[in-house]
Amino acid sequence: MHRASSVFEYEIRHLPENLSGRAVESKVHGEATFVSLAGRRALVALLAYGRSAAGRELLPQSLSLWDPYLAMCVAVGLRPDWRRGRNAAIETLKRSHRDQPVRLPLDELPALVAFTDVSDPMTVRAVLPTDLAPVLGAGVTIGAATLEITNAPVTRSIARSLPWLRGLLDRGATLSGDTALYRRVTPQILANHLYPEDFLRE
Questions:
Q1: Fewest beta carbons within 10 Å, which of 74, 76, 113, 187?
Q2: DSSP 8-state symbol, 189
Q3: Using CB atoms within 10 A of its CB, is residue 99 exposed (0-12), middle (13-18) or buried (19+)?
Q4: Where are the beta strands (DSSP E) in the chain?
């Protein structure tokens, strides 16, 4: 059995009212959750979300920032009140679920990727939370995933597990090393679409 965790900061800033009625801006500071496996393999829960409409595959070209607030609301059956911003629901979560892990449905997890060799970013592959076996081998499954509100410090360790990450981040490159502003990429190669910011946001 393998366990892993990460702590990230979820920040909300109030904005002037706009036509959408969502007068808030959210940001995440921290890192993805890295699960080290045998044989230089790893499973990573990104700071991004991207699923097809049917939930069958990762769509890297349409990745967006994963929202832990919405995921936790779904997990506890709390409906976000967009008209009043997020304050009411967030206060409810802080009162009722601080330091109490909430089990997330698998379809509320962020995008998952796996590395068959963590020393090589080109070995990254998309995986589904319900079917890890095609990439990670038979018998590899997710037992549970939880989300918790905590005052623990933000973790900063993923760059040690993925030693190439910092260099790509400094260069503004994708995981394939591409720094071109406009690029023609091969859709089947996931490393062309993933950025270091999907793993680490400072």
A1: 187
A2: -
A3: exposed
A4: 9-14, 24-31, 33-36, 42-45, 48-49, 64-65, 102-103, 112-115, 124-127, 146-147, 200-201
pLDDT tens per residue, range 70-93? 888 888 888 766 555 556 677 777
Tokens 């779904």: give the residue: 74
The pTM score is: 0.85
Q: Is 47 in contact with 32 (CB distance < 8 Å)?
A: yes
Nearest-angstrom CA–CA distance, 28 and 156: 13
Q: Which residues are CB-contacts of 86 (< 8 A; sequence separation ≥ 6)?
A: 12, 24, 26, 69, 80
Q: Is 135 exposed, middle or buried (0-12, 13-18, 19+ CB in 10 A)?
A: buried
* Nearest Cα residue to 63 out of 175, 160, 161: 175
For 153-168, write each residue's pLDDT tens digit: 999 999 999 999 999 9
How far is Cα 201 from Cα 81, in angstroms, rounded to an integer?
27
